[in-house]
Amino acid sequence: MWYYSANDYFKERFGQKMYKLSLSGGYTCPNRDGTKGIGGCIFCSEGGSGDFSESLFNQDYSSAIDNAKNRVRNKTGVKCGYIAYFQSYTSTYMPAGVFESMLDKALQDEDILAVSIGTRADCLGEDILGILDKANKIKPIFVEIGLQTIHDSTARLINRCFELSEYEQSVRKLHELGINVITHVIIGLPNESKEMILKTIEYVGKHTDGIKLQLLHVLKNTTLEKLYDRGEFQVLDLDEYIDILCLCVEKLPKNVVIHRLTGDAPKKLLVAPLWSADKKNVINTIRKAFIQRDICQGRLA
């Protein structure tokens, strides 16, 4: 069994174990506020995929960072390096000056060794890219783009509201600046076959530095929940997910860092699949499957 994990990559690059401090700048997305669409992606909760994030909106930066550090320390009990992860909504969808100020505070914190920024492919204008370029010369910057799928029909269904060409253009510009790109892909989106998922993986593997493989979660009070309740799609069971995941890993080139194999959902919001709430069992089952099948990243690339 072998795959290029984030843990391996970070130890190679930083010489120690790294943990992310999940933060929220309190802004929104262009497919939530009416600029491109209303309601956001159909799978996103009100927290905008940042339900575990420490908000910077109603407290000063130092307090938010300290709270996030304490959360990691209490959970892990080990000494580590930190990555400031601006996670919720679209963290570059704000005035450039506000974004630069938020980023500067992370760069000035001695405990933070790198910064990761969750965003959309259509929210990386020249002003934002200029700020990222300067920041990347101070500390490593990772930009995480929520692509989810390459298929236009699914992109329309999930209300992504940007084109695949915009992803390609943004990745190219980020790479020209020497900035590391992590691409998010969801496994189990409505109406997507195994073959469609693998086409997305093959495509992403040619463009990105890292990838997050995310199980589709149905959360309360989302448009996706309404589709699920009407029986318009079914969620994957654990065996189905692992079968697809194994193929995804072997389809990815060996140099692509796998930052996530499944993902979390807040238990208070989770509608389906309920098996995903037992994270320990899920991770252990994935590991056993990888060993039993002798999974090797890049074997099918």
List keywords for this structure.
globular, 10 strands, alpha/beta, eight-stranded parallel β-sheet, 301 residues
Tell me about this structure.
The protein has 301 residues and is an alpha/beta fold. It has a single domain (6-292), classed as pyruvate-formate lyase- activating enzyme (Alpha-Beta Horseshoe). Helices cover 38% and strands 18% of the residues. The chain has ten helices and ten strands. It has helices at 6-14, 61-76, 96-108, 126-136, 152-157, 164-176, 194-205, 223-229, 238-251, 279-292; strands spanning 18-24, 54-55, 81-86, 112-119, 141-148, 180-187, 210-215, 218-219, 257-260, 270-272. The strands form two sheets. The chain has an eight-stranded parallel sheet with strand order 2-1-3-4-5-6-7-9. Strands 8-10 form a two-stranded antiparallel ribbon. Strand 3 (81-86), helix 3 (96-108) and strand 4 form a beta-alpha-beta unit. Helix 3 runs parallel beside helix 4 (126-136) and helix 7 runs parallel beside helix 9. It is globular, with a radius of gyration of 18 Å. It starts with 5 loop residues before the first helix and ends in a 9-residue tail after the last helix.
